[in-house]
């Protein structure tokens, strides 16, 4: 009997990317609009990409088996 293929979670596929080193990278939220009230430091920090580690990273890899 054939094995069942696991489907990729489409929302996770759009939001996260696996780097060359195997880390999960995502873009931080909060910079779409209404950034005038934020400090320069806050806007600069939100521009940087974030990295997911630990148990959350393991769960994300499970929902993106072919990424």
From TrEMBL:
Keyword Ribonucleoprotein appears in the UniProt entry: yes
Gene3D superfamilies: 4.10.410.60
SUPFAM superfamilies: L35p-like (SSF143034)
GO cellular component, one term: cytosolic large ribosomal subunit
Molecular function in Gene Ontology: structural constituent of ribosome
UniProt-listed Pfam families: Ribosomal_L35p
GO biological process: translation
Keywords: Ribonucleoprotein, Ribosomal protein
Similarity-based family: Belongs to the bacterial ribosomal protein bL35 family.
Name of the molecule in the record: Large ribosomal subunit protein bL35
Originating species: Candidatus Mucispirillum faecigallinarum
Lineage: Bacteria, Pseudomonadati, Deferribacterota, Deferribacteres, Deferribacterales
Underlying gene: rpmI
